[in-house]
Amino acid sequence: MNKEQETILVKSFFVKRVQERVLHELFSPKKRDQALYRLDHLYKNMLKNEYLIEITPPNSWYEDIYDLLKKHGAPDTC
Question: How far apart are CA 13 and CA 25, in angstroms?
């Protein structure tokens, strides 16, 4: 992903208190893995709650996830 898109993504969906840290780590080749690991394990503390919805198991079928996103107003390119 390019730097501009990642910045927009972080500024849009991450809570204010972690944005600068996440951006710093994402753009640092040595720390990028740490940022992604933290997002994977601590997403509830990093992402804005207003954008989180629970996807009930089994949640591995992409068409079900796509339908759920569309139901909540995602565009065709989600």
Answer: 16
